Task: inverse folding
């Protein structure tokens, strides 16, 4: 059965009595089911004095419950070939896994147990703290991570949750105790912040019934309010060089505070970014910096329109001698897009690509689940996949150009270079 | 579901499998050429040739190659590794003939414009240097080079820097013309297609391409390793890494699947799909090495790597030490676990769990037409595509005795190469110490 077609995905969406949303889609690609449970519990909810709590919770939530030890849970999941992945973003924390269809009810019950009653045992908290510190130290040795985190700090500042390191620092993580983890869980991982998506070889009504059995009796406090996300104000060009002389290649992160996902200009911005730094092998940026100038293995841009105003980030990895010419090329391409907008042909090509890629995006159970989770998070509706083509067709070249003009200006860009580079030759 | 196999008159092997779960088709063209086919002076040529084969053909001008697949919502890519080079497109089913046209052009008519060759030289050097930024990858290169003395698997897929700096357009074009012939290739089509029509289109696009000389290639058998080897990389950094690499059986060896089961017991099942497996972590929290190293706080991560290969390659266990933990303590603990399994094998419960994990993994790996097509082409290139549908039954037939024998034979100290990455405080170039080896090494798979 195809997930796409004239009717689109057409999932079943229901809300349990406790406020949890369940979205189910039957898709018989393989004899397997993907479970994707997402909570409004991302890093923006970290208390300012305890940066890294959300990430810490994501590393410990499945390490023992009031009913079972971490070892018991690991034996249960591993015994069924299931790898449960916990991930934390700016706004959400998700637990995802794929299981054989015969194991679905048992695995969903285990996922419910994990999110409802984590125990955060002291021993586990200490072991995982060591892992997290190691991860932070690895991040500090990666020019790519250092450049991107440095860029977000420049764009949003320490006072804004988007400007902070998602895993916190070694010092902040050392301060986080079991009580902080419990408090975060109690305030953020509650039924009314849960969106549970189930996609696979199981009838949607049965999937919802199993979900109701596993989560329906869960009663918990109301979620705490989200922090106010202040939009970054206008800024002049800022350049920060972070020398990492033990490395071979430098990473450039260059960007702007762009738009919210709810911004009416989103579709125009989506198309504009595709033309600038995504289409084929990195759009205009990849074509120039990789294909024409041969300066980088990767050069591209990415748009992260989120609940708050998110960044548009240009990335490139280059030899130290090519940092300055690459920056010049990025400046020129950004300025050209702002001055002239896209050509009619570019707009037509990107529009056709984004519309045409929907079946591929929605081919696998995991792909459908991620898409449905995204539509739920941004309130786009369960028919969003069907509406995408018309939304993109309705965007004019002038609208894309106007968006580029408003967002892209090299004199206002934030730039971070991390790697074996000490600064411009002059 | 099974694939149709047809060999065209020019020797091109065509595999077609209908999968009607989405209105998509995936086309892969595989060549039996990889970094093992390279000689000193031209290491990295297979990978560079792969890059050049995206830069225009006689009938597809350079500026028009971009967009053909994108107009059908498609993605395209390619990769080169030790045994193979492959190219792929996945797009809506109406693009099937366009995909076949591109692959036929790629086989016969690539241009190798001298300016494009020069421009791509620096792109590939940038790719190499980006990889060197990662200490784990740097250590991997050193360990593989230390483990192999004779077999060309020791060459890096991306090539030595000096070869990348000196290779000429003639080297690239000669390599292309020698290996890009239909009788050295496998074309795979999977998706929402009709088999007869797909075969007709493939024959029309590829049937006129002349076959080439596929003279027997010289090969070297890696001599048995007679004693443990060790290499230490010291470089400014923050984190220490350990690698334990054992010479491992090829896909042709009856010991390969018992070792795959053993790896599942030690580090969790990964399956055998290199295109899919890295996207999903293995179920490993009850695995022996995870419990001994990660749950005990000595390591933040442990991974096992065993890939199906044409010749014997390596089984590599990679460990990231937690901040402040000495590598010696990590190594001692890991070796004690490996000694235990070498001496006593695994339990019945572990065997059953490993088989269940691998069975699940095979199901999960078949979730997209690209993954299905990858497996058919990958296995045909190193052995036979017919191994793919037989894998589940063969894994199920693995016995406790076979796993114990594999552990006893493979996990021997004399068969081991140990690698350390020791972070040092000072900046500067890497210092590499080893048992009389030059510190050069192969990288992993190189993506487009």
Result:
């Amino acid at each position: 059965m195809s997930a796409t077609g004239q009717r689109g995905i057409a999932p079943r969406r229901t809300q349990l009595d406790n406020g949890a949303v369940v979205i189910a889609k039957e898709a018989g690609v393989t004899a397997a089911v993907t479970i994707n449970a997402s909570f409004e519990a991302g890093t923006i909810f970290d208390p300012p004095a305890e940066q890294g709590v959300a990430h810490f919770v994501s590393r410990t939530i499945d390490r023992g419950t009031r009913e079972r030890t971490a070892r018991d849970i690991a034996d249960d999941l591993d015994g069924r070939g299931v790898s449960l992945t916990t991930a934390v973003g700016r706004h959400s924390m998700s637990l995802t896994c794929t299981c054989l269809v015969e194991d679905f009810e048992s695995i969903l019950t285990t996922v419910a147990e994990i999110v409802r009653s984590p125990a955060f045992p002291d021993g586990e908290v200490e072991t995982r703290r060591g892992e997290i510190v190691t991860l932070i130290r690895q991040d500090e040795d990666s020019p790519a991570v250092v450049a991107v985190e440095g860029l977000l700090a420049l764009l949003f500042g320490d006072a804004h949750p988007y400007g902070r390191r998602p895993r916190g620092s070694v010092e902040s993580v050392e301060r986080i105790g079991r009580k902080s983890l419990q408090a975060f869980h109690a305030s953020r991982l509650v039924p009314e912040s849960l969106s549970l998506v189930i996609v696979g070889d199981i009838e949607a009504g049965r999937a919802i019934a199993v979900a109701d059995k596993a989560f329906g009796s869960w009663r918990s406090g109301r979620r705490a309010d989200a922090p106010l996300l202040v939009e970054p104000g206008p800024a002049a060009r800022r350049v920060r060089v972070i020398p990492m002389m033990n490395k071979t290649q430098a990473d450039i992160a260059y960007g702007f505070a762009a738009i919210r996902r709810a911004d009416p200009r989103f579709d125009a911005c989506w198309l504009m970014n595709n033309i600038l730094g995504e289409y084929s092998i990195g759009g205009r940026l990849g074509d120039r910096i990789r294909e024409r100038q041969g300066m980088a293995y990767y050069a591209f841009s990415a748009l992260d329109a989120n609940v708050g105003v998110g960044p548009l980030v240009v990335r490139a990895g280059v030899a130290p001698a090519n940092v300055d010419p690459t920056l010049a090329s990025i400046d020129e391409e950004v300025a050209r897009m702002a001055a002239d907008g896209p050509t009619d042909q570019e707009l037509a090509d990107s529009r056709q690509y984004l519309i045409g890629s929907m079946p591929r995006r929605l081919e696998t159970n995991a792909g459908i689940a991620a898409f449905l989770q995204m539509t739920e998070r941004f309130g786009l509706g369960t028919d969003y996949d069907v509406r995408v083509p018309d939304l993109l067709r309705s965007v004019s070249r002038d609208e894309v150009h106007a968006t580029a003009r408003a967002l892209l200006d090299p004199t206002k860009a934030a730039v971070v270079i991390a790697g074996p580079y000490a600064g411009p030759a002059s | 579901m099974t694939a149709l196999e047809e060999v065209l008159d020019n020797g091109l092997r065509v595999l077609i499998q209908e999968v009607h779960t989405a209105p998509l088709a995936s086309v892969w063209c595989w060549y039996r050429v990889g970094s093992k086919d390279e000689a000193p002076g031209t290491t990295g040529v297979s990978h560079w040739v792969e890059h050049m084969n995206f830069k225009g053909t006689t009938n597809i001008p350079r500026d028009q190659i971009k967009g053909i697949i994108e107009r059908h919502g498609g993605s395209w890519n390619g990769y080169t590794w030790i045994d193979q080079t492959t190219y792929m497109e996945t797009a809506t089913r109406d693009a099937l003939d366009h995909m076949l046209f591109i692959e036929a052009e790629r086989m016969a008519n690539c241009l190798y414009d001298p300016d494009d060759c020069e421009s791509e030289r620096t792109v590939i050097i940038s790719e190499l240097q980006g990889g060197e930024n990662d200490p784990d990858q740097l250590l991997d290169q050193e360990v593989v080079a230390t483990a192999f003395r004779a077999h060309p698997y020791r060459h890096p897929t991306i090539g030595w820097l000096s070869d990348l700096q000196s290779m000429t357009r003639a080297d690239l074009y000669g390599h292309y013309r020698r290996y890009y012939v239909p009788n050295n290739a496998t074309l795979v089509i999977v998706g929402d297609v009709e088999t007869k029509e797909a075969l007709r289109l493939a024959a029309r696009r590829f049937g006129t391409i002349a076959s080439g000389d596929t003279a027997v290639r010289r090969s070297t058998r890696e001599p048995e390793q007679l004693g443990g080897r060790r290499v230490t990389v010291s470089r400014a950094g923050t984190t220490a890494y350990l690698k334990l690499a054992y010479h491992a059986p090829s896909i042709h060896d009856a010991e390969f699947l018992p070792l795959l089961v053993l790896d599942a017991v030690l580090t969790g099942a990964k399956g055998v799909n290199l295109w899919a497996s890295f996207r999903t972590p293995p179920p490993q929290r009850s695995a022996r090495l995870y419990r001994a190293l990660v749950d005990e706080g000595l390591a933040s991560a442990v991974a096992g790597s065993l890939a199906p290969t044409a010749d014997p390659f390596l089984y590599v266990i990679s460990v990231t030490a937690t901040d402040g933990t000495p590598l010696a303590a990590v190594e001692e603990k890991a070796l004690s676990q490996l000694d235990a399994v070498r001496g006593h094998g695994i339990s019945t419960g572990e065997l059953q769990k490993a088989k269940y994990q691998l069975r699940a993994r095979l199901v999960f790996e078949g979730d997209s037409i690209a993954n299905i097509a990858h497996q058919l082409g990958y296995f045909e290139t190193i052995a036979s595509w017919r191994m793919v549908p037989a894998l589940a039954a063969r894994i199920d037939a693995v016995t406790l005795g076979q796993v114990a024998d594999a552990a006893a034979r493979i996990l021997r100290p004399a068969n081991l190469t140990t690698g350390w990455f020791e972070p040092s405080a000072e900046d500067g170039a890497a210092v590499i110490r080893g048992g009389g080896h030059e510190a050069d090494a192969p990288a992993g798979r190189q993506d487009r």
